[in-house]
Amino acid sequence: MTYLIADDLSLESAGRRFRKALNEPGILRLPGAHNGQAALQAKAAGFGALYLSGAAMTASMGLPDLGIITVDEVAFFIRQIARASGLPLLVDGDTGYGEALNVMHMVRVFEEAGAGAVHLEDQLLPKKCGHLNDKKIAPAADMAAKVAAAAGAARDLVVIARTDAAASEGLEGAIARAKLYVEAGADAVFPEALTSVEMFREVRAALPGVKLLANMTEFGRTPALTAQEFQELGYDMVIWPVSSLRVANKAQERLYAALARDGATTAMLPEMQTRQELYDTIGLGTFEALDRTIAASVAPDWAAV
């Protein structure tokens, strides 16, 4: 179960495993996992691949999603998720942390950390969440150069080109950019912040044979659609980028309010993961069994206390 047991380690690279999952029938569902614990819970629910959102990473650090964090900070998140779950992971690469050489460095670092895929976006720094207003878009040729650099640096990593141009250049502009990015070496395209089902259909029709990623973020500009509905529109992948963080944050907000009000956490016990449930999720017993000097832990029976 744990990444410390060699027999459980895949001999295939994360990139090859991600590509294999992408080529299987049906849409590839990629729930966001903002840390190792979330990754384990998503895996337990039956998901075979995951997504790591830049917005979720920065928010978990108490920062806005403005392209502030570094390659090494993202690699820390990649390692914990990849090690904990063993699942192929799509990572948000923002703008590539610079120009072509920076993008190549990012690809190598992410791949070595355990990422299976990365997406790059055609915004300029300071970048913004794709569903916010007045994004600054890079020249299409500059973005194409970054895509080519990423594809050239990757060993097995799947390279996905995201375009945020629909809001400023219209759908035709976004499609033209997507075609250029595919020519530059992108394995798939991520048309961000589409605002209607018809826009999703038009992109699909304009890019025959190209793998497409849909973003189903809450409280954004895209209408609420299910994975099945995106599949019927011809999309190959769908992400729910910040959902796990939103739910966790709301639960923590309720916890701190109850603790401030009551001076105790008693009211929140029914909403908590129990000690035993936590140990089962992280595989405490499996870790302990690796070292015979550690006594097997027995969780206290709190209900009997």
UniProtKB/TrEMBL annotation:
Its EC number is 4.1.3.30. It catalyses: (2S,3R)-3-hydroxybutane-1,2,3-tricarboxylate = pyruvate + succinate. One of its GO terms (molecular function) is methylisocitrate lyase activity. Pathway: Organic acid metabolism; propanoate degradation. InterPro entries: ICL/PEPM, Isocitrate_lyase_ph_CS, PrpB, Pyrv/PenolPyrv_kinase-like_dom, Pyrv_kinase-like_dom_sf. Keywords: Lyase, Magnesium, Metal-binding. It comes from the Bacteria. Signal peptide: none annotated. It is an enzyme of class 4 (lyase). Its cofactor is Mg(2+). It holds the Pfam family PEP_mutase. GO terms for biological process: propionate catabolic process, 2-methylcitrate cycle. Belongs to the isocitrate lyase/PEP mutase superfamily. Methylisocitrate lyase family. Catalyzes the thermodynamically favored C-C bond cleavage of (2R,3S)-2-methylisocitrate to yield pyruvate and succinate. Involved in the catabolism of short chain fatty acids (SCFA) via the 2-methylcitrate cycle I (propionate degradation route). Catalyzes the thermodynamically favored C-C bond cleavage of (2R,3S)-2-methylisocitrate to yield pyruvate and succinate via an alpha-carboxy-carbanion intermediate. Homotetramer; dimer of dimers. This is Methylisocitrate lyase. It comes from Pseudodonghicola xiamenensis. The gene is prpB.
